[in-house]
Amino acid sequence: MSATFIVSMIALSIALLIVLTVKIKLHPFFALTISAFFFGITAGHSIPEIITAYSNGLGGTISGIGVVIAIGTVMGSLLEHSGAAETMANTILKITGKKNADIGLAVTGYFVSIPVFCDSAFVLLSPLAKRMSKDSGNSMVTMAVALAMGLHATHMLVPPTPGPLAVAGILGSNLGLVILFGMLVSIPVTIVAVIAGRILGKKYYYLPKIESTEEVMTEIGDKKLPTPFMSFSPILLPIILMLLRTIAMLDSAPFGKGVLYNILDALGQTIIALFIGLIIAFFTYKSVHSEDKEVWTFDGIFGEALKTAGQIVLIVGAGGAFATVLRLSNLQDIVMNVFAGFSIGIIVPYIIGAIFRTAIGSGTVGMITAASMLLPLLDVLGFNSPMGLVIAMLACAAGGFMVFHGNDDFFWVTVSTSDMKPEIAYKVFPLISIFQSIVALICVYILKIIFL
């Protein structure tokens, strides 16, 4: 089939997904499934081929994030019912003030996403975002955008996140320079998200569905809320363990390759680190509610939280399945043929990254494909200096920011765990990802003018 037809079918399948979720309000799991099969059939793939791709995508996504969502959801519920989320929110609000609570979340996301995948990080931090929204009165849209897009910024630009790390490796960019300039470019990229989040938060205002402070205090009675140390530990300790594992795995092997390395490698695995956080959250809850003997049962907090987690896991898995079915097309060959022979600086890798992110929901695939095409053109385009290689890498990543929507499993993690309606999410996240992408491109262009 022709390239134009394939691209048209991708566009139609994405449009169908939007109509089903926004207009018809069909449950996202079924909307994603229908859209995936629509593309597969119209693009000429056989039903068995589509089912195989869908199943592999669903299973692969769930195997990667399912347990994380389950543990994170239970932990978040424990933090909420113990009053720990309230303690954390109050602590951050004392520093930022209620007016700037979203900035506190954006800064948190900016740093956390460097060692931790955004999916895991958002699941981990969403209870805090909900509590801060409730306590500050700021729209949950504003808080979710600040956290998600703060995570998004460094996830796309700063190694050791796999995408930028892979692109730096393909192009031979100096990793230290990539980290330094990636973090610098991430600052305005995060700022524009915070500003846009505030504007859109007022337009689509809602508060999360959690217990009010009064209800929590009634539940706790005369007992005090958990201390800041006990409240933050379930979140901070897993992040620290994952960061230490990331550092331990660097080529320089700062912790060696012996016993300490093996310990950090084991404890820093995402599931293990989060499970440790869950255990701490459990003891934090029991320190407040020692009388609750049902907390770990099917009808207790564990069971109720897992009922919610199950639905989230299926939605996120269907998002991964949709993206996998889209990858059945020969989109990569189409794009490479279209741009073969083009040599217009940073625009080509930027456009390629944007096409793949928008079409198949993977910024990582987008930036890696762009880097692969850019590699033989580095000398011709003048990117063969150490700083030129960094700028080339950042250009690939800038395109990978757009457009963030329903074929990305992180989109559904964000929507599901922040109680946001899909129709609101579609009006917010794609637009802000475009802003982030354009700001990133402008920053890369300025760096090009300064250093090349």
From TrEMBL:
InterPro entries per the UniProt record, alphabetical: Glcn_transporter
One Pfam family named in its UniProt record: GntP_permease
Record key words, sorted: Membrane, Transmembrane, Transmembrane helix
TM segment ranges: 6-22, 29-47, 59-79, 140-158, 178-200, 229-248, 260-285, 306-328, 334-356, 377-404, 424-447
GO cellular component, one term: plasma membrane
Keyword Transmembrane appears in the UniProt entry: yes
GO molecular function, one term: gluconate transmembrane transporter activity
PANTHER family: GNT FAMILY GLUCONATE TRANSPORTER, PERMEASE
Protein name: GntP family permease
